[in-house]
# Entry
Amino acid sequence: MDTLFNYQAIRQWLPYIARGLSITLTVAFSAAAIGLIVGILINVLSRRKFLGKLAFMYVDIFRGTPVILQLSLIYYALPRTLSLLLSEAFGWSVDFRLTAFSAAVITFGLNSSAYVSEIIRSGVHSVDKGEIEAATALGVSKFHIYKDIILPIAFKNAFPAMMNEMITLVKESSIVSLIGLQDLMRRQQIVTAQTYMYFEPLIVVGIIYYAIVKVLAFSGKRIEMRLHHVQG
Amino acid sequence: MFRVDKLSKAFGDTTVLKDATYTFVPGRTVVIIGQSGSGKSTLLRCLNGLETPTSGHVYYQDMRVSPKTLPKVRKQVGMVFQGFNLFSNMTVMDNVTYALKVVRKLDKATSETRAKRTLEQVGLADKFDAWPQTLSGGQKQRVAIARCLAMEPEVFLFDEPTSALDPEMVNEVLDVMRTITRQGFTNIIVTHEMGFAREVADDILFMSQGKIIEIADKTTFFTQPKSTEAKQFLLKIL
# Structure
């Protein structure tokens, strides 16, 4: 048994690996918050003609390129390019720097917003036109209709897809190990480098990811049931 | 009151309303009848701006109905739909108080007192906290009527309010509508319930193929229709 899974050897590393959990979760939840806010914003803007085209391009680009490329671009390339641009254009010497954490949150937040905006779009599409007409006929303003009727109903309908996006974020955030952020995945690599063990740390990290996903999926189901129970 | 002048509406190549001209008289109940697709609902929906006419104008108390004047007009005009259209994310009480709060700017207590009064009026005193999805069609439509009533409009528009109901629920809605027609509102009703039309109407607008074919008081219309279209229509349904 010890040769298959060397618990004795991995045990001392468990607290170290577990500390990566808070990084993974902070990145995922911060990105989700940004994704939600920007996603709603995109949805609002996409109703306007010119801004709608921009919003479409934004969504198209973020969905059409790998997140690992986006992360590298934002972390490694963008700060330098911006500094160069400002110094060439205005003669300013500004030294942009992004911490790995900020770069991770920004990248995943923006990336997620592209997906969230699509989820909200289909949620909005699912709102009964009749309800919007009834509110219109009562003299309710477009802003209030969007805020009080369309968005809440769209959210309820899109909730399972939103939860799915949250779960995707938790798993995909493992890519931040690339830029040296010490999340779960990065810590596995460090432990492996220290101990020459692959299997054990990978399994430990795998179990932690799986557990987060299960907890999220379970709470999602509970909330979903409540949403549908209360409102019939 | 509402006046329509040479009102036309086309969806793509299909003209559904042609040169409708009519002046609604305050305090009267007008029932618009005609076959499906004759433009009745479109006429009604042009009045409160749910449809924008292709040509012609709608006036409300000498104010031309336009995007600019619509908020004013809608404050005075309640509309009841075929599909009830209750807000599915709000309880019965919130359905009624919502527009009172955001459109009429009434406070919570005043809105709720008014909502309770109107819900009692339509016989739903026991459903304040119910969700729309748990109600029968008849109950939903009565909530929708209470929602309009609470806004204290001058005009009621009814767009086939009983067409989506199971037969046994039609009467509970007609009963409520009957009491409304006795309260001095101006009522404009699109319906296929001929018995009801005969009972509550002051005037009849008969439409066929997008045109107003006949305008008459109800007795004249039902006993001595002039146009061949109206004669044929009445033969079919009576």
